[in-house]
Amino acid sequence: MIYEKMIVRCFFLFFLIFNCNGKGDRSLPPPPGTKSIGLNMFADKKVITIADWKEFVYSQKIKNPSDSFLSLNLDTAHYFIIFKKEPSEHLPIIGKTIEEINEYCLWRSKMVNSLIYQIKPDCSKKYWKKCKTVREQKMKVNYFIPTTDEYSKNYYKDFTYLKIKSNTSFTEKIFLPFVCFAKYE
Prior knowledge:
Layout: H1 2-22, E1 34-38, E2 41-44, H2 50-63, H3 77-82, E3 96-97, H4 98-117, H5 125-130, H6 132-136, E4 141-144, H7 148-152, E5 173-174, E6 181-184
Antiparallel strand pairs: 1-2, 2-6, 3-5, 4-6
């Protein structure tokens, strides 16, 4: 009887350990707006919207007041063709090049890392406390565009997200919604 209980307890502990680490490292909090999709791998919960893109463009305008940020602005003609209506804040951003999307990912990485490493938390104190492990290990969040290989693992089955083909040029505009993936490094 005692051995049966020990076996059941060992099985339960074994199951608990592997269940906690099967989907992602529970000790690392997911970056804001993401969900865990694997060990130290996170993906956006939603596509990047026009509101997200406007925040990025505004920060680029402040950082560099030259005309270079104008290319990052919205081309509203795409929204009339695809959505048959005026662009609104909740619609996904489309018609951006891979280079522009990469710039967005770099900017977002900087913003989230500054949030994690700030001395006095402006964000939720609960989230800031969760980031203690990240700060102690001096890790940084790195956002990036998922590759075709990452999509082949079927992280997303219910939504058609941007798949980057190896032959896609950096200046070719992409008319699909996109998400960012993130990992700690």
